[in-house]
TrEMBL record:
Pathway connected to this protein: Amino-acid degradation; L-histidine degradation into L-glutamate; N-formimidoyl-L-glutamate from L-histidine: step 1/3
Biological classification of the source: Bacteria, Bacillati, Actinomycetota, Actinomycetes, Kitasatosporales
Similarity annotation: Belongs to the PAL/histidase family.
Protein name per UniProt: Histidine ammonia-lyase
Reaction equations catalysed: L-histidine = trans-urocanate + NH4(+)
Entry keywords, A to Z: Histidine metabolism, Lyase
Gene this chain is encoded by: hutH
Enzyme class: lyase
First and last residue of the signal peptide: none
Listed EC numbers: 4.3.1.3
Gene3D superfamilies found in the cross-reference section: Fumarase/aspartase (Central domain) (1.20.200.10), Fumarase/aspartase (N-terminal domain) (1.10.275.10)
GO MF terms held by the record: histidine ammonia-lyase activity
Compartments where found: Cytoplasm
PROSITE patterns: PAL_HISTIDASE
Length: 513
């Protein structure tokens, strides 16, 4: 994979993901090194003066009232890292930590923090060596930055604490640095503070969630189309002119996706032959409206993420040759959209579960066997798969409770309003995983229903057949008697998670939105 070159201007979201998930190497451009050196000169000049400057020659937070003598400032910067590395709980995922490290390096490279180029080079060296600091689940309030998570990353730069090596084993950070020829850094004025004071964890998780939800909302369009087809529903509600009169762009995109998946179907609309229906149920008929609202929420979240990606979040910052205090570290903009996305994910999952239940209920499935069982009564079919799906949806609803409406004062009331954005990001990651499982179960049920429904005369759409071929090739079993179901549901989840479902449909439809 090509290297990601960090300039003094921000990277793209794709570059962040390349480093976080793809282990792309990081290089520092000459303009970034020059910007850092220029900002450092400002810090050095201020450090030589007698008047106190926050973060340069004072304590931190509620302790900023003390002026720190020059001979104590190295210790001050080291101490802020050690004392703030106070996280607890399970380890945070490797991709999140890599995003956290890279995004902090991005801000350092902007030339607004006053961190020396040699510190930035060491940060890049850690990423390139595949050394991942141990970061814990709990420790950030989403204000004054993701303090504890970033402190654990900075601790590794000092050669202290534990880190994961490229082989996945936990070892002492000092051993890993020595093994890769990386010298621990000795922090100078402002540098310890600058390494901790950012929204990088929240932003990294938001960028990854946006990428994942982009795939999942398209997956939901496909599974909704398969279910509509298996229920002999009508695709006329997907016609472009109906969505043009309510011009939400996401709605139009989802309706178009479903219409393209269903093109050429021999099943849609045949309910009129045997059991006339004026309209399909909401979970089928309104699928584009709900998935479309998710798309529009996702577009807003991406806009916020792009603005944050363009930001240099630190306090104080170096601007126009001076150092200025600010409140740009507050995570409210990110916390809100992280919560919005968790709400959207829960609703998308809720509608998918209702469609699955409809496929399994003989009173509403228009001729399909109860629970899609081979011998109902002897076989239970997919009865308990829907229970699992319902339990997942219930969990998603709890995860939709906003974190960003909470605030607990800290730092002796100096930091008296916080965003809880890190907590919003952590629960969104869980929500993304659960939504993937919900859609996997709908895929499994809709695929079985289509195979039970299809005849030589009434064939599913070409795109639907391509999906069925792909999922069977991916290890998902077809209709038949009862068998150990959990492994097949896990396989279905994997086919959604790795993009197999979307790629299969697109092999016929072309690129979907």
């Amino acid at each position: 994979m090509p290297s990601v070159v960090l300039h003094s201007t921000p990277p793209t979201a794709a570059e962040v993901l390349a480093v976080a998930r793809g282990d792309a190497r990081v290089e520092l451009a000459d303009d970034a090194l020059a910007a850092m050196a220029a900002a450092r000169r400002v810090i050095d000049e201020l450090a030589a003066r007698t008047e106190p400057v926050y973060g340069v020659s004072t304590g931190f937070g509620a302790l900023a009232v003390r002026s720190i003598e020059p001979d104590l400032r190295t210790r001050l910067q080291r101490n802020i890292v050690r004392s703030h590395a106070a996280g607890l709980g399970p380890r945070v995922e490797r991709e999140v930590v890599r995003a956290l490290m890279f995004l902090r390096l991005k801000t350092v490279a902007s030339g607004h923090t006053g961190v020396r180029p040699e510190v930035a080079r060491t940060m890049a060296a850690l990423l390139n060596a595949g050394i991942t600091p141990v970061v814990h689940e709990h420790g950030s309030l989403g204000c004054s930055g993701d303090l504890a998570p970033l402190a654990h990353c900075a601790l590794t730069l000092l050669g202290e604490g534990e880190a994961e090596g490229p082989d996945g084993r936990l070892r002492a950070a000092a051993e890993l640095l020595a093994e890769h020829g990386i010298a621990p850094v000795e922090l100078r004025e402002k540098e310890g503070l600058a390494l901790l004071n950012g929204t990088d964890g929240m932003l990294g998780m938001l960028l990854m969630a946006c990428a994942d939800l982009d795939r999942l909302v398209t997956s939901a369009d496909i599974t909704a189309a398969l279910t509509l087809e298996a229920l002999l529903g009508t695709d006329r509600v997907l016609e472009p002119e109906l969505h043009a009169v309510r011009p939400h762009p996401g709605q139009a995109a989802s309706a178009d996706n479903m219409l393209r998946v269903l093109a050429g179907s021999g099943l849609t609309g045949h309910h009129q032959d045997t059991a006339p229906r004026v309209q399909d149920a909401y979970s089928v008929r309104c699928a584009p409206q709900v998935a479309g609202a998710v798309r529009d929420t996702l577009a807003h979240a991406r806009a916020v993420a792009d603005r944050e990606l363009a930001a240099a979040v630190d306090n104080p910052v170096v601007v126009n040759g001076r150092v200025a205090s600010n409140g740009n570290f507050h995570g409210a903009p990110l916390g809100y959209v992280l919560d919005f996305l968790a709400i959207a994910a829960a609703d998308l999952a809720s509608m998918a579960e209702r469609r699955t239940d409809r496929l399994l209920d003989r009173h509403r499935s228009h001729g399909l066997p109860p629970f899609l069982a081979e011998d109902p009564g002897v076989d239970s079919g997919l009865m308990i798969a829907q229970y699992t799906q319902a339990a997942l949806v219930s969990d998603l609803k709890r995860l939709a409770q906003p974190a960003s409406v909470d605030s607990i004062p800290s730092s002796a009331m100096q930091e008296d309003h916080v965003s809880m954005g890190w907590s919003a990001a952590r629960k969104l990651r869980t929500a993304v995983t659960l939504l993937t499982r919900v859609l996997g179960i709908e895929l499994y049920a809709a695929g079985r229903a289509l195979e039970l429904r299809a005849t030589a005369e009434l064939r599913p759409a070409p795109a639907s057949r391509a999906v069925l071929t792909a999922v069977r090739g991916g290890g998902l079993g077809g209709p038949g008697g009862d068998r150990f179901l959990a492994p097949e549901l896990a396989t279905a989840e994997g086919l959604v998670a790795d993009g197999t479902l979307v790629r299969a449909a697109e092999s016929v439809t072309g690129p979907l939105a």
